[in-house]
Amino acid sequence: MTGKSQLGDFLQARRSQLRPEDAGVTTYGERRRVPGLRREELALLAGVSASYYTRLEQGQSLSASPEVLDAIAGALRLDESERGYLHDLARADRPRARRRRPAPERVTQATGQLLDALADTPAIALGLRGDVLAWNPMGHALFAGHLDPGTPDSPDRRPSMARLVFLDRHTRDLYADWPSKARAVVGNLRLVAAQHPQDTALHTLLGELSAQSSEFASMWADHRIKACTVASYEMRHPLVGPLTVLQQTLSHGPGPSVVIATTEANSSSRAALTLLAQVAVPLAGRDPVQAHPPHPARTGAAAATD
């Protein structure tokens, strides 16, 4: 899964998914072996030579300029996220010095305080690859109540949201439209893989998911890109029943991102969250840190300041 092969695979996949009529290419009713655009047709739309585009798609050219990439992105009708992904893949192609192994991820003091402040709102802190670094009691109760709440404390036991979505039956059943959630996870992993092509831990995760889940392998091969920072999901919680939440990802540059789940005011979903706090989060009305001394959000924050 090198950047070089990903670039060629991405171009080929998106070209095959773009129908001639959608790109304004006239076929005059001819029979075509494949439904998508031909290489020479895509090259013509992008204003580059067919031979150059072929070399780029085959991974034989490492010198595509930003202007050429933008032209190809326009021909492929890529959106903003996909266009950025294309540029990331091109940069990943170019030779670079070997990077040092990244430092272990952990929750900053600021993130720990944010999780504590969001006591009534389900919130989890995620690392680069989607590992759960910490969660507040409501976040644990909503997203992974079947797991030990202390698992994020140990790096070797931290839950992976990607593994949970694809390999954990509880999480799969949690989402009424599981394919939508799964595609969002895959799309985000693709963006991360392009931005961090030398992350061996990420490659290991992708290999594991591809081997253990045919659905992941199929979605990964589809090369769909989805920057999902805000999305609505209907959930079927085993304790409080159906509810619809708006999941939002808060990110401020390097470091963990925080995913929060909110509900519409005066809705049955808001009532379900209130019930979840009463049923699954003991002493929910108190400071979550005091009510749960070993809670991972505070443990992670304290570790970050040691």
Overview of the molecule:
This protein has 15 helices and five strands. The model is unreliable at 283-306 (pLDDT under 50). By secondary structure, it is α+β, with helices and mostly antiparallel strands. The chain has helices spanning 3-17, 39-46, 50-57, 66-75, 80-93, 109-117, 137-144, 161-167, 169-174, 178-195, 200-212, 214-222, 268-280, 288-291, 296-305, and strands at residues 123-126, 132-135, 230-237, 241-250, 257-262. The protein has a five-stranded antiparallel β-sheet, sandwiched between helices. 50% of the residues lie in helices and 10% in strands. The protein has two domains: 3-93, Orthogonal Bundle (434 Repressor (Amino-terminal Domain)); 109-305, Beta-Lactamase (2-Layer Sandwich), CATH 3.30.450.
Task: Lay out the secondary structure.
Elements: H1 3-17, H2 39-46, H3 50-57, H4 66-75, H5 80-93, H6 109-117, E1 123-126, E2 132-135, H7 137-144, H8 161-167, H9 169-174, H10 178-195, H11 200-212, H12 214-222, E3 230-237, E4 241-250, E5 257-262, H13 268-280, H14 288-291, H15 296-305
Antiparallel strand pairs: 1-2, 1-5, 3-4, 4-5
